[in-house]
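User: Please predict the structure of the protein below. I'd like the answer in structure-token form so I can feed it into my own downstream comparison script.

Assistant: Understood. Taking the following sequence of 274 residues as input:
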Amino acid sequence: MVRNKQILTGLNHSLYEHPFDRAALEKLEKASFLKKAISWITENTIERVYTIQYTGSNLKVSVDNYPKVYDCFLYACKILDISNIPDLYLQWDYDINACTIGAKKPIVVINSGLIDLCDENEMLFILGHELGHIKSNHMLYHMMAQLVDIIIEEIPGAALLSTGFKYSLCYWDRMSELTADRAGLLCCQDKDAAVRSFIKIAGLPINEYKNINCESFIRQARDFKMLDFEGMNKFVKLFCIADSNHPWTVMRAAELLNWEDSGRYNNIINRSDI
């Protein structure tokens, strides 16, 4: 790997936080009594179960067994100024994806497809996205969102009591992805790599990878952003993703390009904002 990235020592998550993420989180934090109760339950139930599941079923990556993968991960942590290195695990799945589990002691889990189907800068974008969730203190609320889903499924009548809170969590969950995408771009420091990642995640067949057209996808993303100003399109998008924890891939790309266009990304990279 070419060590040509700007190391963002002193980076604070507030510098790249998406305003929709912050606004949605502030609404959730107003229910402090609920946060305390669910955080205790989360740490002592679902987080423990998920940690056992992932650490007991998947390959732990280290410098001793898969040094190239681990070196890329350490480099991502270094760029984003994360000194408390999470454990890294590898699971068999050919989606280009990764996830982060746990709030008290988070672990990062990457899919085999991420390694086989992405170049190093694309990997840095996706690893940076996951590390962005950790750096931005998203993980407790991510685990809470999963816990609320389980409660609704398992306890009769719980859906009636928790629907509003669930949709608030889902909305914040989607907005937190926009913040994490910014962390991913700060990590890979390559807009085209971020765009290629979105294209692959959106469904490009492997045999078309050699024909990736970033410009056409960027045009699609910018067109989609323009549609967002129309009230009906806003309603349609809200209706389609109200119960989802990830915004649409093209929407994410549009938001990331808009942030890069604003100059705030360059300010951080050039260290004028740190």
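That's the full token string. The mean pLDDT is 84.
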